[in-house]
Amino acid sequence: MANPTSFSLAVFLLYIIGSTARPIYPIPSEDDYETRQPLQTFRPYNIAHRGSNGEIPEETRPAYLRAIEEGADFIETDILSSKDGVLICFHDVILDNTTDVAKYKKFENRKRTYEVERVNVTGFFTVDFTLEELKSLRVHHRYSFRDPQYNGKFQIITFEEYISIALDAHRVVGIYPEIKNPVFINQHVKWPNGKRFEDIFVKTLEKYGYKGSYLSKEWLKRPAFIQSFAPTSLVFVSNQTDLPKVFLIDDVTVRTQDTNQSYWEITSDKYLNYIKNYVVGIGPWKDTIVPVANNYLEKPTDLVARAHAHNLQVHPYTYRNENEFLHFNFSQDPYKEYDYWINKIGVDGLFTDFTGSLHNFQEWTSNDSKTESKILHKIAHLVSPYT
Ligand SMILES: *[C@@H]1O[C@H](CO)[C@@H](O)[C@H](O)[C@H]1NC(C)=O
Ligand SMILES: *[C@@H]1O[C@H](CO)[C@@H](O)[C@H](O)[C@H]1NC(C)=O
Ligand SMILES: *[C@@H]1O[C@H](CO)[C@@H](O)[C@H](O)[C@H]1NC(C)=O
Ligand SMILES: *[C@@H]1O[C@H](CO)[C@@H](O)[C@H](O)[C@H]1NC(C)=O
Ligand SMILES: *[C@@H]1O[C@H](CO)[C@@H](O)[C@H](O)[C@H]1NC(C)=O
Ligand SMILES: *[C@@H]1O[C@H](CO)[C@@H](O)[C@H](O)[C@H]1NC(C)=O
């Protein structure tokens, strides 16, 4: 973003665009929390990865609404920025793979090559498009084998629009936003008064009342996990908010984007002992917990046990129903995969593209009858102000 004037313009545009979907963004009243069904905290979290994106194109409003309808505890998103400094929900730094950007003549000269995390990437970058331009695009599925009927129908949404979806839900639904590619975003987008991407990210959460440490009374009203692959961003924001943070861990071959550390360094006991001062958990790529060869699971590593020994939760990614992603050990049955990860590996949350399947699995295999768990919930809710 060039200057404060274009920033104000962006805010104004955001307001106009936002108003078609939701007139203003009022902070919800305190008492409506009392009447809403609380977040469940007695079993592993169902984290709707990019919404219910197995069904509906990722990070769109309908994908999030579907996830909420299907029982998500948290809706997950990736935060990037537009050229004019508006935070948006979008996974890739380029628009090419999940939007129709390539079909517009007006954008054909917008293609660029930038270095992103030590790799040269060519395409249409979100940081070269204003929010208004981004809103003119339509999103489609990343994978051709997913239901095409919603392709080309929905817009990119802003971070604020995403938050409003969670706050408008009829029950308490948490948010799980990622500070995505912070090194790259801070190189390409400038905010007034030397503010960084991470500052704007935290300010946005504060604006909507997101605060408090994990399981605090305030957190339970508006639950949020902040996630990032960049440890320096997590450390930086821990100075600004005590919302719980989760350190994402990539494949064993990938070094961290900011500190250039290897997988082995960041999963060592020494490092877990350090990072636990800033985060409540780790979010590893699941194939690093249980390595895979020729599509068969190998012997599980001790990463979950070591993280738990450091009092860190483990929320692996990504669970996907399709044959293209299920390892042979699971007999092409996603419930078998959930059973393995929840009951054998013992994870604390799962990022899934199919929130409905995980929810059904958890409901159908729960030892708590519905009424029992409801009563437990009520009790937890009643005692939480005194703990
Ligand atoms: C986009 O898709 C291409 C082809 O499938 C893939 O090689 C590339 O990694 C994807 N880009 C991003 C940013 O995901
Ligand atoms: C990216 O491309 C530039 C220009 O061609 C080159 O100087 C640079 O070394 C490349 N970076 C990587 C990581 O390949
Ligand atoms: C946190 O804030 C303190 C006081 O403003 C500052 O001295 C310190 O450098 C900050 N730490 C980080 C990691 O930004
Ligand atoms: C990152 O670390 C690797 C391994 O030590 C090294 O080869 C590489 O040059 C480093 N990259 C940067 C940008 O420092
Ligand atoms: C997965 O299946 C392969 C082949 O049958 C077997 O060798 C391996 O032990 C299985 N992995 C696990 C974790 O059960
Ligand atoms: C219910 O709990 C018992 C005792 O902890 C356990 O053995 C059993 O596997 C559980 N059943 C289900 C369906 O989770």
Comma- or semicolon-separated keywords:
single chain; 387 residues; alpha/beta; TIM Barrel; six-stranded mixed beta sheet; four-stranded parallel beta sheet; 16 helices; 14 strands; globular; disordered N terminus; binds 2-acetamido-2-deoxy-beta-D-glucopyranose
Question: What is the topology?
Answer:
Layout: H1 4-21, H2 32-35, E1 45-48, H3 61-69, E2 74-81, E3 87-89, E4 112-116, E5 119-123, H4 131-135, E6 157-158, H5 159-167, E7 174-179, H6 182-188, H7 197-207, H8 217-221, E8 226-228, H9 231-238, E9 245-249, H10 263-266, H11 269-275, E10 281-284, H12 286-289, E11 292-293, E12 296-297, H13 303-309, E13 313-314, H14 334-345, E14 349-352, H15 355-365, H16 370-383
Parallel strand pairs: 1-2, 1-14, 2-7, 8-9, 9-10, 10-13
Antiparallel strand pairs: 2-3, 3-6, 4-5, 11-12
The structure holds 2-acetamido-2-deoxy-beta-D-glucopyranose (6 copies).
Protein name: glycerophosphodiester phosphodiesterase
Signal peptide: 1-21
Pfam family, one: GDPD
Structure overview:
It catalyses: a sn-glycero-3-phosphodiester + H2O = an alcohol + sn-glycerol 3-phosphate + H(+). The protein has helices at 4-21, 32-35, 61-69, 131-135, 159-167, 182-188, 197-207, 217-221, 231-238, 263-266, 269-275, 286-289, 303-309, 334-345, 355-365, 370-383; strands spanning 45-48, 74-81, 87-89, 112-116, 119-123, 157-158, 174-179, 226-228, 245-249, 281-284, 292-293, 296-297, 313-314, 349-352. With 387 residues, it is α/β, with parallel strands linked by helices. It has a single domain (4-91, 157-386), classed as Phosphatidylinositol (PI) phosphodiesterase (TIM Barrel), CATH 3.20.20.190. The strands form four sheets. Strands 1, 2, 3, 6, 7 and 14 form a six-stranded mixed β-sheet that branches. A four-stranded parallel β-sheet has the order 8-9-10-13. Strands 4-5 form a two-stranded antiparallel ribbon. Helix 3 packs parallel to helix 5. The longest helix has 18 residues, at 4-21. The model is unreliable at 1-23 (pLDDT under 50). The structure holds 2-acetamido-2-deoxy-beta-D-glucopyranose (NAG) (6 copies). Residues 235-236, 239 line the site of one 2-acetamido-2-deoxy-beta-D-glucopyranose.
